[in-house]
Write a structure and sequence with these properties.
elongated, alpha+beta, about 55% helix, single chain
Amino acid sequence: TVAQQAAALEGLRDEVARSREERADRVREARTEATAPLLVAMLDVRDRLDRALADARRRRDAFERRLRPEPAGAGAAPDETGDGPSLAPLWRRLRGVFGRGDGALPAAPDAADGAAVMRALVRGLELTLERLDTMLDEQDVREYACAGRPFDPGRMQAAGAVIDPQAVEGTVLEVERSGYERGGRVLRTARVRVARRASPGAR
């Protein structure tokens, strides 16, 4: 009958729709699996950029301290950062990039040169890190919280223990490497240090 044919057609349409949805799910799953190693590599690059940015900020601040006038009667403040000697290899690399012709960096930096270059370097690293974070965000990559939470072996790697009689045993006290997830699935486990009440063998 016409009603039976209509019902059969409707059932066929539903089956085709389910098949398309299942195929789309498989394609999305395959893409997720294929891009995971690249995203993990991007996270490793992000960690290195973050460390480089922290070091560049420290060097910039050291140069800017040298530009400040000393108070009357005060001697030169000791440089506790060790930035003077350690800047030489970086400066040589920068000169290699920018050349040695007109407008090139001088053979050795004074405080003003050093501060200007380090400010530019810090800004460049900040912009690069911001762009990388945007790319990760577009891929639904999210950092998940670990500090202060119970150790979770499915989301964390134990890098060691911290003896703290006041802390709850097994609580994460330090995060050495952040953990990230994507779509609710762990993309990169966190590396953490957890609380212990006493060292092994202690009485």
